[in-house]
Structures
1.
Amino acid sequence: MTTPGVLPYGSWPSPISAREVSAASPRLEGASFVGTDGEVWWGESVPHEDGRSAVRRRTPSGAVVDVLPAPWSARSRVHEYGGGSWTADDDGVLYFVEKADQRIWRKAPGALPRPLTPEAGDVRYGGLSLQHGRLLAVREDHRRGRTPVRDIVEVALERAGSTEAAPPASLVGSSDFVAHPALSPDGTHLAWIAWDHPDMAWDRAELRVGRLDDGVVAEWTSVAGGTSSPLQPQWADDDDLVYADDPSGRWNLWRLRLTADLRHEPIADVDADTGGPLWVLGTRWFTLLDDGRIVAVRTNGSDQLVVLDGGEDRPLSIDAVTRLSIEGARGTRVLVSGAGSGGAGLWEIDVDEPGAARLIVGGAAPWGEQWMPRSRAVTVPGPHGPVHAFDYPPTNPGAIGPEDERPPYVVFVHGGPTDHVGGAASGKIAYFTSRGIGVLDVNYGGSSGYGRAYRERLLGEWGVVDVDDVVAAARGLADSGAADRDRLAIAGGSAGGWTVLCALTNSDAFGAGISRYGVADLRKLAADTHDFEASYLDGMVGPLPAAEALYAERSPLSHLDRLRTPLLIEQGLDDRVVPPSQSEAVRDALARNGVPHAYLAFEGEGHGFRSAETQVRTLEAELAFLGQVFGFDTPGVPPLDLD
């Protein structure tokens, strides 16, 4: 065995290139068993095709082929974040939302796609699901002004004697937002999730059940929620409904029996979440098997997969600990997506043979697991309570740092801000740690995965609690001797970018910052943001106009004179959530202040970077930026010019 060489942190030689990270990090978008033999299909963003969302399958020989070839792209823009952009039947017919026009299309094997919904202006569809031979979807109609109208619709699968696409039949609306439609097996009832402004789905929502008359909801009743946030109704039979809800502060599973007294029975009462923020349509945290057992995700910081069998809970072994989602079930077989020691992937697991989980795609680091850092869960005290994070130390089998040197660290700040990270190293994390740069991934107050109380720590305090928590986590790591306190950087995108900018204008904890499409001006965000998040700031900061002074005080744009830390800014020019004007204002202030900075803008990119070239460029630029600011060489990456 070769003895590791002593080399300065940040300059360790690594086989992990930015291009390999982009290629090895599949962005999965749904999966399903298809056909009588249960062939596995999945959706996947293809970075080298400008982020096109393909639908793929694996042949018996092991080859991966496209069911939906280029230039078609299955991607929904409902709520701007989409989800549920495709489904398929057992005849191999694919139904999908085409990114370019947001219509629903049908593609039979060997045939070209044809539209099922008419060309009708800015009308979007998402959350597609085939249920008992009927195609249901969420429709979002933007033709009536700034505020879109949403409803649950049924889309005709065939048009006898006509080649023209017909308008879908509206089943129910009656609220600002709808999600998770579930048709009872006998077709007489529809269950769904509904919520209204100013709430987000994880603040307060309702589970509604309606009676269908001639295919339309004739009357409905709210059967759960109102002060809690129910999720994902699924029928066990014509009269029994299983769903997740958090009246206790944790999303647990419940059973509703549609008797005269509407009996609610807890299925499992545990200190963990089977559920999460409903950002993306179609996300599923549990599924019912044909024999009555339930396979569920449980989250308490990290994720665990379990099977519930009567009163017994049994863990299912899978190499994934975060972002678990139940994608499909057939008999005793379950499809689960998530991320683990080898990155993001899709697995098939038989609950009766739990030791034989089969990897379908992703989930294996091409450069070898010896280059992947092992996470260490850490909790540090903060001014608002304990702060949870995952530490990824520098990891390289061929290098160690000098004894008298502590490594530089990048503090990762997730978006949302209700997202969470779960202790799985990604290719991006390994890109840094393999070069001798540690990563601290922080679940600041406001993150999901630790219960409602931890998530609601951020209410009214966005820009305060999140900043205090990431600063506490970074300083706690440095105080432990694991990191060089003079070489701490902070990086985040979207809401994470907001925290980056707030931290740099309100603390001296960090020596460098990386903001990806970060929010800089709350008032502009409130004025420009899309309808799904139009009232989000009411809870996280305060309602306008009463809280306008607070919006100004919290916004980094109001304190750019205090921005004296070198900063790398990355921005998509087609971003509809955080427009480029916010990043450009920060760039201009850095220039006025004489602070070293770089501004990278990308044509064709929106809120989140999908193309391979953008992903490669940003990752290499981040490494080069850290090297310039913290004084270490970064061989193998193009230099970054700082203004």
Note: The CA atoms of residues 118 and 598 lie 45 Å apart.
2.
Amino acid sequence: MISNRVYLFKLEQAPLKRKLIIIYIIMTVIPMGILGYITYNQNTKAIEEQVGEYIPRLLNQANKNIENELNLLNDLPNAIYNSKEIMSILRSTPYKEKSVFLQERYIVESFLSNNYLNSNRSDILAAFLITNNGNYISTKVKFNGMDVENSILPFGELHDLAGETPIILPNKTNLTFEKDIPFILLVKELTDFENRESLGALIIAIDVNFIGRIINDIDKDNKATMWLMDENGYIIYHPDKTQIGQTDSGAAEYPLLNGSFRTVNHKKENILYSMNQSVNKHWILVHSIPMKYLTERTDTVKNYTLTIFLILTIITTVISIFIAWSVTKPIKQLGKVMKEVEGGNLHVTIPPMNKDEVGELAEIFRSMLEQLRILIQKNYEIELQQRNAQIYALQSQINPHFMYNTLETIGAVIEEEDKETAIVMVEILGQMLRYSLSGSESLVPIHMELTHIKNYLTLQKIRFEERVSYEIIGENQLPLCYSPKFIIQPIIENAFKYGMKKRKRLIISINLLVEEKNLKIIVKDNGPGINNEMLQSIQNNLNKKDYFTRESGLGLANVHTRIKMLFAQHNGITIESSESFGTTVTIVLPLITNPCMTFDKRVEGREEYGEN
């Protein structure tokens, strides 16, 4: 039950194409296969019954022919009764001179040879005449084991024959012929009808091949095997000479009723056994034939049918696959388009569909996609305006911040009554104000940002004199590229804010380099550094998703926020610091070389900077 549920669950989860093919197989191929199988089995069974009923009748006729042949052999002793000379010798006294005895032996054995061995009965192997006057032998083939002195049958037993002609099988005697020729012995009592006395017995050895000639007429194609055995299973005749004289070990599998049949599986082969028992002799004639010979024509028809069935199955399966493909192809195409839309591509092209259910679904999806693009465009424009306002607000926060610090520095110089230095500082401040107030663009050439930083550092150098030194590395190796405004100054301000309190001399290094289509600005100082707890707090503050709920909108958070809003998420700043060993701040920006790059294009083209 559980396995059936699992199979049904798997079938429910299978692709539509596979389901259609499976349904086709269930509805067509399987019923056709079952119908063919039942038809073949019924035909085979009908043939088996017809043959099983027909062959026993043939076996019955063969048994009668064998009995008729044996009845003809019963008349062979009549030749002795018809010969006055032989009868005179048999009636004579046994007490004779040797010469007379030898002459009579010659006469009798010549008679036996001429009348039995040289007759048209070629099956007779030998004739043994056992009489009161002596034993006479005439044979075609050499033999062993015939005790002619004691005779096969004691003379006392001959009176019990009552005129019958018994048959002695080889297993009842020690007689054997050269080359192990199979035989049976016919025993006929010789009686003197004048005085009703027994004269002896005529024993004729007959080759059993005459049985083979009779039963071979039943199977001229030599496809069947037939043999003759007695009631105890002793094989009298068998086409396989080695089986003659053996006891049939498979007799238990044969039909129990006379004239019946049975199919038996023997060595992985079905064999039809039929049998018939002789009424007079009680011998059993067995017929066996492999079913494959009986069903040859049926098998041929089956093979042709199976071939046609397989061809039709292949053709119809191909047709079903094509139909399933034609049904599922538009669905797959529509699914592929939906996958692209899921990936963010709203400008996909939906291929033309048929005017069926799938085509209607595609048309509905096309209309829905069009409405979705319109809504996204509206939402995008609203979001774009909001982001522009946010970035401008963040950037505007920088202006009063650095203005306050710079004016504080100029005020300190004026207090020292250094007019020339104050004039230089005011000029530099003017340049910085022009840079701060020049336009509302978010991106500026990197050299302008570096000039602004140099002005800022110059002001701080004037203020702190020998306590401050700085260097800018890699400026001349940079290509023409662009960066947001005021991304370096807040970092430098932090270095002064915390470094000048605990260092006699503050050293600042700004290194610019290009790596893998990214612009890296590395700001390093020798300040007091940041302990691990404070560093983790700063990192958590930078990683907040809502840029405007951070603890501070200035400094590092301001720079990091603007970079994230302008570019991909992997851009921004990272901080490395150890207490008492200074701080390194790395700014990662995309390498922007297009001076016409606007904020709109940067938002639409974020994949260019690696954001998916």
Note: Residues 151-162, 548-553, 598-612 have pLDDT under 50 and may be disordered.
3.
Amino acid sequence: MTKNSPKDDLKLLLKAAREKETVAKYLSIHHPEKAKFHYHQIIACLDTIQEGQDIFTRRSLINSYSDVYQRIVAICIETQDFSNASLYASYSKNRYLVERLLLKDANSTSIVLAKPYNSSKNLATAKPNNKIEQAYLQEKKALQLYTYQISSQANQQLLAESQKKWLQAKKDLENLYIKASEIEPELKKQTKAYPIDFAEVKSLLTLDTAILEFFFTETVLVLILILPTEDKPIISEKLYVKLQEVYLENIAKNWILELTGKNQVKSNHESNENIDNLALKINEISKCFNFNYLLSFLNTSIQHLIIIPHNYIHLFPVHALWINDNERLIERFSVSYFPSIHVWNICKKLQRKRKLLLTVENPTQDKDLIFAKAEVASITQRQGFTESKLLSGQQASKAEILSCATHHNCFHFSGHAEYNFENPFDSYLMLSSDSDIENLTLNTILADMHMPKADLVTLSACCTGVVDAFQATDEYLGLPTGFLLAGAKAVVSSLWKVNSIATAFLLDEFYRQLEEVENKTVALQQAQNWLRRCSADDLRERANTWNLAKLEPKEQFRLERALKRLEDIPFENPYYWAAFILTGC
């Protein structure tokens, strides 16, 4: 977490430049093993420079060295060193998010250490755990202010002032950790992101779970498969996507144009043509991947897949891709998504209850969101929750949500949201149709949201799972980022603009499944497979079980009219069921 001096950084950059020249010499005479050693030296320099930096400084640095990770992974594959190929592929991803999660968890650990620490040191008047927690929250807030000002292109004087405040807050927190480490030496180490080698990853996997990690080299998209019974990762040319032979990046760019409404056939994103186009794009993506070969590597005991995307793969519903002519991935496996293996390792260690529910229902009071009201009504009647608090309309203020979130286990938001591709920190959950200031932005979530008891966050709105997918650093920047850093163990979010009727049924079934199965990924898998096969009559029968007494007569009439229009199997198209993904455990 300690920031190097500019002089130290310059020395490291010069060393990295020299090592890069050495790599080029060894590659020119076909010595990949020696080149790999010097690439490792470059990465060690980059690690030291970027540790503790803000996200934009990291991006600026890694943009100049993005080829280093690509080439060392490619060389490891060429030399059959698959374990290190997997290690470098994973280690290159989302270092900022990993470091901030580790810092948050170290802060939680320091609270546990409060009693012995107090008895021996007794710093000042405040309890040391309170001091560390307060210092952590101050550093977190100061960093986000500085980061947001960079993203908003604030003037240099403001940037200099906010950077100075952040560096001081970081120094204060660092000093407290040093003192706390006198009691628990491991505490300081918990704030540093060390690579997780293959043996450790394998040991963490249960026998029914596999990891599928994506990584772009300069010429191919590599799929790295980690199985609990194999002695090394599986990296097969059969699973390569050769980038010159497919148009995957063009699909991703068009995907973003449609998310932003710039490439839609009609202004209404729910026109039949736009809905069919999304299904066709999923078919096109399926053709790019060789998932028909994937099954040959997976034995019948594998039931769960952990997906680690890379770059613009974050945009795609991998769980909805075809694995053969008749089956999609989700029909064989439950699927969870993670920004990196490090994040998976952090999330799986969290122990949370699932008893206290906080719901935010249609805060903008949009009359078209009648199914949001029905959705929340169905969820709050679940027996698994011992206590439920509802914030509706004007009750759902930013201040009230931030306050209530600190002690609830589950947070469910049903309303409108928007992802801002120009400045992701301005992405938001809409709390007011009159004032942007009142909206719950990613910037606010990162700075002020504190959810130490949160087991599940469900964001039932449009594009809540979209991330900044074309950055060379692959820093995962979207609303789920904020909630993971706030403390959530898992986030359910959407990859595109969703249909409110289908979403209400999907999430109703998801929470029903959670009462039957502990695993959230299995609950979402069951819910999505249920919705895509459910008949209109069965859906109407399900709606009859909802507690709709809170709906006004006009709302009940509109809901019943919408239900009567459903025919056959109305939500079979993946547009309706595939948007929602689970990030976390």
Note: Residues 156-180 form the longest helix (25 residues).
